[in-house]
Design a protein that fits this description.
Blueprint (H helix, E strand, L loop, with lengths): L5 H65 L1 H23 L1
Helix pairs in contact: 1-2
């Protein structure tokens, strides 16, 4: 470390500060994007929940039937997945 002159140390310090500043800026941008995404997802989930509340069980049932008619393969896969998940959860609960 004795080989560093004052100018070299100062240049090194400035470069390190620039790199740190850039990293902080990028991290801030990514954090802002993540916060925006979470907020958007929260709003979407709230709208969906409000719609389900307004439609009631009959409206929800009608939408499920409509989706099943439009895309039966995906509906079947979702039903199988939900059944497997429910089976795993009840198996764990039983011991």
């Amino acid at each position: 470390m004795d080989n560093f002159s004052g100018d070299e140390g100062e240049r090194f310090g400035k470069r390190a500060a620039e790199k740190i500043g850039s990293a902080v800026e990028v991290a801030g941008q990514k954090l802002d994007a993540a916060v925006d995404y979470v907020e958007s997802t929260k709003q979407s989930a709230k709208q969906t929940l409000d719609q389900v509340r307004q439609e009631g069980w009959q409206g929800t049932k009608a939408r499920m039937l409509e989706y099943t008619r439009k895309d039966p393969f995906n509906a079947l896969l979702m039903a199988v997945g939900a059944g497997l998940l429910l089976g795993l959860l009840t198996k764990r609960a039983r011991g």
